[in-house]
Amino acid sequence: MPDPDVVTAAVGRNVRGQRGRLGWTLEELAGRSGVSKGMLIQVEQARTNPSVATLCRLATALGTSVAELVEAVEAPATRVVRADEGVVLWRGRHGGRGTLMVGTAPPDQVELWDARLEPGDAHVTEAHAAGTRELLLVVEGELTLEVGERGFTVGAGDAVTFPGDQPHAYRNHGDRPARVAMSVVHRSGGGRRPHPEPPAPGDGPQPARRSARRSA
User: Fold this and answer.
1) Which residue from 32, 99, 126, 154 puts its CA 20 to 30 A from 118's CA?
2) pTM of the complete model
3) What domains are defined for the chain?
4) How far is CA 60 from CA 4, 57, 183, in A?
């Protein structure tokens, strides 16, 4: 697994480079992304490990992908990412984690994630840019997916697709780990949606659970 300090340094370097390519000041990027100037300074100077929400905002504003922002070196056209080479971008309170395995650059921007949620873990996220869709396959265990005000129970072998431009959350209410393969598909030219920082994992209401098969 890449050293977190290496990833943090790569993010700072890449954000700074993309901003310079566009000829934007820190104030301009802050205004376009909804990320404060103070946070941008910390990101560019590799003094903080930005959240997934912050990375998404910056990638959308800069016209790039989250995968490109976390790349330490330029990626070849074809490459194999080994199981231990993905970049962990979020961690659950009970040991779960979300790992970005691979991604493509705009205009056909897709991210492939490997997520594991331990019992009691949750990941709450804000709405992505307009037109974003997510697809996931539960490989092991059972996942509760919340999209807006609706809740869905997705079991092992089940798949679901949903609009990622709504607030959503993934929770493990079961007694076994849940393993999920997930793709995030960003629409080319999708609009930017600045939002306040998302609530901490595990916060927020618990909607009624509903079968993904019955509700799809």
Assistant:
1) 126
2) 0.73
3) 4-70 (1.10.260.40), 87-215 (2.60.120.10)
4) 23, 5, 17
